[in-house]
Amino acid sequence: MNPKEIESIQSQIDELNHLLAEATEPVYSPLKRLDRLGILLLKLQDGELEGKFVHRLEKWLCADPEALTYYVDFMMLCAMLRCYFCPDLGVKGLVEKVQHS
User: Fold this and answer.
1) Residue 14 has pLDDT above 90, yes or no
2) What would the DSSP string read from start to end of 15-67?
3) CA-to-CA distance for 35 and 65, rounded, in angstroms?
């Protein structure tokens, strides 16, 4: 084998090792963590979050102040949007709508 072939093979091996490292030991990313939290919260609001995941979400929010802040901000935004787009419902109308859902 000539040096160029060896260098090409080594480059491919390095690339495969990098991909393997990403798959087995993902780099910690707060954004990805909060993205997952956002997805859980959307499913929770849609009533599509299973009970075991609701329990996990509760534990997560109790253990992680950043996640709890995200949760509160998310719910406040949802409440403000609902009040803005459904002003005729008012608080009483919202409670009745939720109870009948």
Assistant:
1) no
2) HHHHHHHHHHSPPP-HHHHHHHHHHHHHHHHHT---HHHHHHHHHHHHH-HHH
3) 16
Tokens of 38: 């956002």
Q: What is the pTM of this model?
A: 0.57
**CA atoms in the 13 A half-sphere facing the CB of 56:** 10
Greatest alpha-carbon span in the chain: 80
Does the pLDDT value for residue 100 go beyond 80?
no
In angstroms, how far is CA 53 from the centroid of its own chain? 12
Identify the helix (H) or strand (E) that includes residue 101: none
Distances (CA, A) of 14 to 9, 10, 11, 19, 20: 9, 6, 5, 9, 10
Counting every residue, how long is the chain?
101
Torsional class of 47: left (φ above 0), alpha (ψ -120 to 50), beta (otherwise): left
Instruction: Please state, in angstroms and rounded to a whole number, the distance separating the CA atoms of residues 30 and 80.
Output: 26
Which residues touch 44 (CB under 8 Å, ≥6 apart)?
54, 57
